[in-house]
User: What shape does this take?
Amino acid sequence: MWQFQQIDNPSGATLWFSDGQPVTAPRGGDGVSSRLMVDGQGFLDLTDVQIAATFGASVEAIDCNGVDLALPVTPAELTLWLPGDGSFTVALEDGGGGVAGRLKPFPAVSAADAAYLDTMIAGGYVPYPNIPDAPGKTTEQIRALGQQLFPFSPYAFELAMSIYDWTTASFTRMVFMKIFQYTSMPASPLPLDQSSIANEIWESDWGTYTPQNPDYMKSFLMKPATSLQDVQVQLASVATQLQQFGDVENRLLAAAFQSMPRTSTFDQPQLFSGQMDIYQLGTEHFGIEFLQCPLNAGPTSVPLQIDLQLALDTYIGVGDTLTTKMVWSFGNSMDEAMQYQNGIVLVANPPTGAAVWDVASYITPLSDDPTKIEYTFAPGTTFLVQSVEQTQVDSKTVWVINLLVQPAVALHRSPGVVDVAQEASAG
Assistant: This one.
């Protein structure tokens, strides 16, 4: 446990913690990560960890954006210095030690993207309405959560709404419009495999999410359809707008995910995802989720689907690097992943030595269902394949793929950072 007793903030920057509590409130606890936001400068993640000390013992410490400050006693009284240049120093109040480093930068958010989302909200396309089997959230609740979680941004509401909408059936639209892009073709906008998108929409049959349901089809900017040809004709007329819709939402999601408070790797050492988690997608669609898929280069006459074994044999093997085209959702247990799997389970592992999941975000606070545990990786996240094995889980045969998350930015143990944690632990 720890508490800021003194804060030197000569620039006068506004400070917030993402938990919504006062800046000087007591915080911490086993595996707890707390995110401080410094207006105009960036994030400071303070995470309770255990570090090695003399004779192999361990002591409680706070990881401060990748550098450890040992806490000789708890609760610890701390001083925070924010000179205004994007750096920070956290020290023990009694002068027993301190660490310094850089704040993590705020993400860029496009005013045009926020304005576009506002028009889709005004048009009733966002958020998804009439959600079955989940309580949902009101616009007022989403706005209040935006102010708590993203107070540094003038687009706090749009960032919150983008995550909320992802947790609804709208995620299907965002997935289709990403994985069915030919991402290696030199064209703007990127060509789409419209035939596959239309087929997946037509085959939707999950509760009320069918091509005959007005709400579901409106999420694709369409009207209820009576045939596959009907979907194909409608898609052809809205494909460009639908692609822009998806691109905007995914950019906002990436910024919102980056801004959410971090999860401690001590609290969640692994994350799990069942694939394919849209039931009408098969294992032949797993390989197209990555920029490394050779089919991304076209031609567009070749549908975006690849036999799973061929993908595993060519670019999803041990030692290969994969970059996602879409948002990936994970839970915190194998049991949960098995509920969603359609032949594949992914196990995500954090970078060695990382105290927090820097590129994974716990988004349940903004979910339409507060009981659903969900961690998300933004499009463009890179993973190293550690192992690929076909095995039995709960009497079901699945491919289990272990992935090592590659850090987006080198934030851990950065060169030049002043670190006197060893002095503190020795004392």
In short: The two ends are 19 Å apart (CA to CA). The first helix runs from residue 111 to 122. Residues 158 and 384 are 32 Å apart (CA to CA). The first strand starts at residue 2 and ends at 8.
